[in-house]
Amino acid sequence: MDLVLQDEIRELMRKSSDSCVSLYLPTHRAGRETLQDPIRLDNLLREAEKGLVAGGVRASEARELLQPAQQFLKETASTRRLADGLSMFISRNFFKYFKLPLRFYERLHIGRRFCLKPLAPLLHGRKRFFIMAVSQKSLRLFECTEFGANEIELEGVPRSMREALGTGEESIPLFRMSSQTSNPGTAQMVHGHGGAVESEKDRLRRWFQNLKESLRPVFRQEKIPLVFAGVEYLFPMFKQAEIYKNTLGEFIEGNPDEIDSLELHKKGLPLISAYFNREKTQAIGRCSELLGGPLASASIADILPGAVSGRVDTLFVDTDAQQWGRYDPASGNVEVHSERQPGDEDLLDLTFAHAYLNGANVYGLSSPEMPGKDAAAIFRY
Predict the structure, then answer these.
(1) Alpha-carbon distance 89 to 101, whole Å?
(2) I need a surface site. Which of 174, 218, 256, 259 has the fewest CB within 10 A?
(3) What is the pLDDT of residues 87-117, one digit of tens each?
(4) Where are the domains of the chain?
(5) Cα–Cα distances in Å, from 117 out to 24, 42, 146, 203, 362?
(6) Residue 114 near residue 345, CB atoms below 8 Å
């Protein structure tokens, strides 16, 4: 779902028209607040019609342009099936909307391009991660984002230890319980002894080596993090086999055969969030260190031409800020205005689109997180 959404957002980034309408609205999944969502959307559409007319569009054309959104409003008023946030993009002969697990500030934007900065949290590619659920009887691999998990079909990969190694003793415990203890009513954990335990460990090691080879075509050149899900004694053996090098040091403990994909995703999010927060913090710190030198800038006049040419490696943008002005692609000149003037566009949003389309890492941040005022960038060269 996330990868498809990213392709659709790329399509939006490439569109331009005389009247591109972008709407963002915080919405609700349940409760009495759902009754207010259609009313607030209706108010935004009324403002959009007024804004289009004020910009020179005839009233009849403005109503026609907004007709698909009005139809969506009618359907929403009856079903009230929304998520945490609604984004809507409208231009002549074009209409697209997303119900998203993101909370937006309510906003309306009319210009030559769609306003897309609020969608930045969906576009940072490094927020992808794997969850691998491993038991002796089952193997499942999920490609995830912070918003959901999709199971990957593992063609040609053994789905259990029996399938990989053939028949054998698969359920011999690595530990056994003994009730012979000095304290009545308690049990004592005793390490197993003898060849049977060693044989079980050897089978597990051979199974993990088999998995390593079988999964090589699945992982290819992937470097995104992986969260292991399984019982405690399997995790160190999994790590030792180096089945996937970027496996987190923390894991989801328990029998994964008893946990569905939604619960696995829920348990994995706190682990992966800590990982990505460290990554974001490191990127912000690196930008702060480089500012003042040739490989970083906090000036939109430097960053925008760099984004257009593909020079920007990492972009940080305040998703709630706006910088109005004009950009001349022929000369690379950037003209910044303190207030919006006729013909202006949001230079931050333009920079955001070009940077992402040219393969930059993009971070949509709040104002306190920003290494610069409204935008900052690390350059490739």
Answers:
(1) 17
(2) 174
(3) 999 999 999 999 887 788 899 999 999 999 9
(4) 17-111, 122-127+291-381, 130-278
(5) 11, 23, 18, 51, 10
(6) no
Q: What is the per-residue pLDDT across 272-307, written as a single tens digit (0 to 9) for each?
A: 988 888 888 999 999 999 999 999 999 999 999 999
Give me the sign of the Cα torsion angle 263, 265, 266, 272. Answer: positive
CATH code for the structural domain at 122-127+291-381: 3.30.1330
pLDDT per residue over 6-54, tens digit each?
789 999 999 999 899 999 999 887 778 888 899 999 999 999 999 999 9
What single-letter amino acid sits at 223? Answer: K
Considering the domain delimited by 130-278, tell me its CATH architecture. 2-Layer Sandwich (3.30)
CA angle 11, 13, 15 (to 5 degrees): 75
CB 174 within 8 Å of CB 235: no
Does residue 350 contact residue 374 with C-beta atoms inside 8 Å? no
Residue 95 and residue 48: Cα distance in Å, rounded?
A: 14
Q: Which residue has the tokens 């004009």?
A: 326
